[in-house]
Amino acid sequence: MAAPGGGEGPAAGPAADGALWAEVRALLPGAEEGLTFALSGEVEDCILPLLRRARGLLYGEAGRPGAAAAAALRRLGDVLRDYSWEKLNAGPWREVGKAWRQVYAYGCLFGALAEVAAGRPLAPAVRLCDMGLLMGASVLDDVLARLVRVLQGRLPRGKRRAAAEGSAKRVRIDPPPVPVVQPEDELPHLRCPSLEHFRDNYLIPQKPVVLEGIMDHWQCMKKWSVDYFRQVAGCRTVPVELGTRYTDEEWSQKLMTVSDFINQYIVNENSVGYLAQHQLFDQIPELKEDISIPDYCCLGEGEEDDITINAWFGPEGTISPLHQDPQQNFLAQVFGRKYIRLCSPQDSENLYPHESQILHNTSQVDVEDPDLVKFPNFRKATFQSCILMPGQVLFIPVKYWHYVRSLDISFSVSFWWS
Amino acid sequence: AMAAPRRAWLVFGFSTEEAAGELGPGPGPRRLESGPEGIRRVWPAWSYVVVETGAGLEVRSAGLRRRLPPGWTEALPSETHLVLRGPAVARAWPRAAALRGELREAAAWSRALPPLGPRRPPPLPLLPGGFATPRPPFFAALPGGVRARRLALGQEHVLVLGAAGEAYAWGGGRHGQLGHGTLESELQPRLVEALAGVPMQVVAAGGWHSASVSGEGPCWVQVVRVASGKTGDLYVWGWNESGQLALPSKALAEERAQDEDPGAGEGAVVCGPWTTYICVLEP
């Protein structure tokens, strides 16, 4: 991110190339014996020879792998990733052995190093680091996070203006009107309540509330914009949800860079894409400095490290169907507005949750267009609503049903705590 | 009298050299080396393959060929173990011992088999009462009611060829390997409807893909017809990451499978985790 002053980007040429390799090489143990694989568990016999072989190629030649060694290292990275990828995709994620995720991370590391050693463009290497961060497990003291910082700093800076390709926004035939929140449905709004007041009136009775004023000093309120993310994170690979809602059959997830996401789904909006429920602040730790953990989280039982922080970045029109989560939630709105409807867990039997295990936390009913013939008891459910504005934080008690639709290009940060 | 046609094998996809970290010969097709009697059967794992020559079973990995002791007739290899079947017993050894050909060491598993009847028993993984797996627990009973002529194992799924040439698939389904038209898993054997009405001769399974060969004319279904021969057509379906479907993939430039005659049905196509072996009859 810190590019040399002025101009389009970092200097190119062999001197810079050599300097980059030196900087990258310094992230690794000095000698081959220092790179112990230390896998947290068992992997199959065929893997260790491949890891050793890759290590040998890396340390073999004086200082830096030559063309042939880099090509062989690249191929080994491919094989390690492909083999461990199958293990990562066999069975449920929670049952995947950590050792296999580490092998995958090594595959990404060797692949990225091969790109750098061969002097090739850095974007694929950055993508490999991100794949290792997203799907792998930490190796060599989080080397991938350190490596991606170095590489990101050497990439050309992102364009400041909108994307060159087709910036015509899709013209909506009939944009849905901004929903009206009836006064009787409106959630209470409180400005900077004391810890005790919040605990006694909202946390303990498990009542939702909109908190104001608590984000005022967060740097994100001044710094964050679509362009800011393009600059700071444009080259980074993130998971994007495609399709209007996750209950639809055509819904899918796709990995793409933040720039591509912004170009295809924020600026152009041909179809819905949502960078949703992603721990972006673990992947790009610098962004974490722009936000804070709400003080009220200290009222919880867990450690601060156990709080899950997710980013929610998308165009106007993203929809999260009515669902419940197993933890308390602070939903902080940074830019854009979100229309939110809330329903108490006491009304659960009127909300017709899906039967299947995977969607059991999600209602079958479309909150803004309920089929009352199919779901007659839905009319008995009581809802509260709000339009969450930038600078406001919504407290969603654990298991409280919530429906969310963005009214603008929107960025929210959620904090899941217990 | 004319000599019996010699069986040769072509392989597409990942090589055992690459599995050892060496440069490979490319994704294929390549011909397996053999002596004058040819190679009768192949049983591929990821980093090694067991072949049956005229002289018995042989383990092949990068740069290594080891004859196994006589008496073993069939193999079921994996990256953790090798299962072998003999006339009276089936056993499993850890991969390392198997690659060294050291089968006198204690087996990881052993199961006595009933004496052979007049008819040749169905091949591995089928065993009397169920089927073998190349990793613990090494044996599973076959769910009720399915009369299996042949059985093939993927990483997460099982294919069975029934008595009338119908195919069943069950197990993990997230890569489309079950051929039921969804990505759902199945706990019990379920008929592959897409192939109904076309009797199959052979079923085969790779890690996350499946293949079968019919005995009759072409049938366009939700699978891809890869090669067409005199006696039947080759169908493949599932994941194509390493070119194992012999279709253009990220590993292949523009190589397509040659129109090879798959030969008589039995053993005509065999899938390894990242490979497909096709048997050709040479005059």
Automatic annotation (TrEMBL), chain A:
- Locate the coiled-coil region(s) and give their ranges: none
Which GO cellular component does the record give, naming just one?
A: nucleus
| Broad class of the protein's primary localization | nucleus
Keyword set includes Oxidoreductase: yes
UniProt-listed PROSITE patterns: JMJC
Q: Which domain of life is it from?
A: Eukaryota
Which cofactors go with this protein? Fe(2+)
InterPro entries xref list: ARM_KDM8_N, Cupin_8, JmjC_dom
**Name this polypeptide is given:** JmjC domain-containing protein 5
Per the UniProt record, the source organism is Accipiter nisus (Eurasian sparrowhawk)
UniProtKB/TrEMBL annotation, chain B:
From the UniProt annotation, give the residues forming the signal peptide: none
This chain's protein is named RCC1 domain containing 1
RCC repeat extents: 165-216
Species lineage, top-down? Eukaryota, Metazoa, Chordata, Craniata, Vertebrata
